Structure formats: C-alpha cells, structure tokens
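User: Please predict the structure of the protein below. I'd like the answer in structure-token form so I can feed it into my own downstream comparison script.

Assistant: Understood. Taking the following sequence of 326 residues as input:
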Amino acid sequence: MTQRSYTKNYTIDTPHLKSSENKRPKYNPRLGDFTYQYSRRALEAFGFHAVSFCFFILWNKNKTDGDFNRTIWIKREITINDNGVVNLADPFFDGTFFANENEEQLYRDLDFFRGHYMQCRYMVVKNLQENFRLSGQTQVAVEVAVGEGKCLRKRPVSLADMESMLIENSNGKFKMKKPLIFYETDLERYLSLHSAETGAVFPGDCDMLLYDADGRCRYILEFKKCTPNGPIPVEKQSFLNYIAADRSKYVRLNLLRKYMEETEGRKIPLVNVFYPIATEQVIKLEEISRDMNSGVVRILQMKNDPEENQYRLFQTIHETDFLERD
C-alpha cells in the first residue's frame, strides 16, 4: 500500500449551501445572500453581534421533548486539492484555519458561549467532493478547540467516531424521513443517506443568534425562504404551516430559547423571518411563543438596496415590542 505524502494544498472555509441535484440555491438580490453575507454594519448600528451554530438536544425516549445539550459545533469545511493528507501538527493548518476568520469576532463568540456555560468546538468537515465510498476508519473531520493566543487543540475524527458522537450527543439514534437535497457539507448528505442503518444525523442549527456588547442573548432568529411558485404569499406565512412536517426543528429552537432564558434569567424572543426569493417585496417577522403559537407579527416593505433592507430588518427587530420580551 502506497503511503500518501503530506500536503499544504488545501483551504478551510465556511461551507455554503449546495444541492445533490445540482439545483442552485436561490436568494433575493434585494436582500443579498443573507445567510452568509449579512451586513455587520447593519448589525452594529443596533449594538448586535450575530453567530450561527449547530446544537444538540438530549431527546427523551419518544423524541418529543428533551434538554439542551451544552456541546455546540461551529461548522467549517476543509477542501484538499490533491491526493495528499493534512498534517495536523504542522503550523500551516493553524494559519489556514485562521486565514478566513474574523479573529475579533471569533473570540467574542467564544466568550459569549463560555458565559452561557456552553462548550464550543469547531467541526472542520472534510469536503468529500461527492466521494461517498467511506469506511468507519475514513477521516471525515477535524475537531478543533480554540484557545487563547490562537492556540488550537486538534483531534482527527473518523466516520465511526462521528457517528458515535452524533448518537451520544442526541441521547439516541434518529432516522431521517428522506435524504437531504440541500446541505452545506457532503458529510451531512452522506449521513442522511445512511441514517436508517446508523441512526446518526448531523445536528440542526441556529440560523442566527443576536447578542449585545454585554454578552446577553437578545433574539433567536429562524429564516424561511418563500419560493416564487408557493401557494402562500409571504404576508400569510406562518411557522404553523410547517410545524406538522418539521416539528422537531421548532421544538429544538424552543429548547435553545428556554436554556438561554434560564441561564440569563430573562425572556428572549424567538422570531421566524419569512423572506421571498422572487418578485414579492415584503418580509414577515413572526414571533414563536413558548407554547408554540404565533405571537407578534410585523410586515416590512423591502427597498432596492440589500444593505438597506438588512438594516431595516434589524431595525424592525430591535424596535418591535415582542410579547416575549422583558
């Protein structure tokens, strides 16, 4: 067996949405690619910082309720551009990891998580480049713990390790109803294809958590695209239209909100943001109450400039007296 040599021909980036059917993810040019390229100037105008992360729930036996698991992951993707292997002991890995990171924001986010007793790890997932011929020993990720002074503690993660971690952190096995069509990493697609056999699925995420300069969680946001040919216009949208098919998503977000409220001793709004990807020019904000009902609603008219629309979105969120606010 030929031993492969080490390589430095790789990159580490934030993964973006892609499709198993070569469908191009859509976005509204009036809003921009909001999931990945939101305006920090718009956030900072209202004293917000934003972070997205994957989180686990320790589900009960019936998978209907559970407790928030304080282990969270921030997803990154490593793409190797030749047949070499990555040497984790080489400082080049550390430099590549930080190359596309906003260091100030990274450490601010880590401080926020520590202040809420959460253990944050960066899960640097290998870009499989659609090669799904994997064994249990195939290395599929690197788990990275970031310390002070850009010190990284790294651990290679095999497929078997990953499946074990996913099941343990969720307090049991899960089966997906159907494989993912849209996903950020090939590993998520692979796991969805094999969940019936393994019971291991990648955790869902918090689209955006907004916190302030004092490290207090202000809002938890869930974004929902509205397709151009959908039967329901944006103004009539509600998370209640989707809860029957995707109840676990909203239960998860409610449990995250519950944990944050218990940690901070104050009420925190959970808000669904419906936005169009076609000709409609409105955004709808809908509060989700703790008993999983619709709360305060706001309709926002869009302008032509994406950054202005993002600014007005955060302004509306900031100025709205949600019922769930303290």
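That's the full token string. The helical segments are 40-44, 91-99, 103-115, 159-169, 186-198, 247-264, 306-319.
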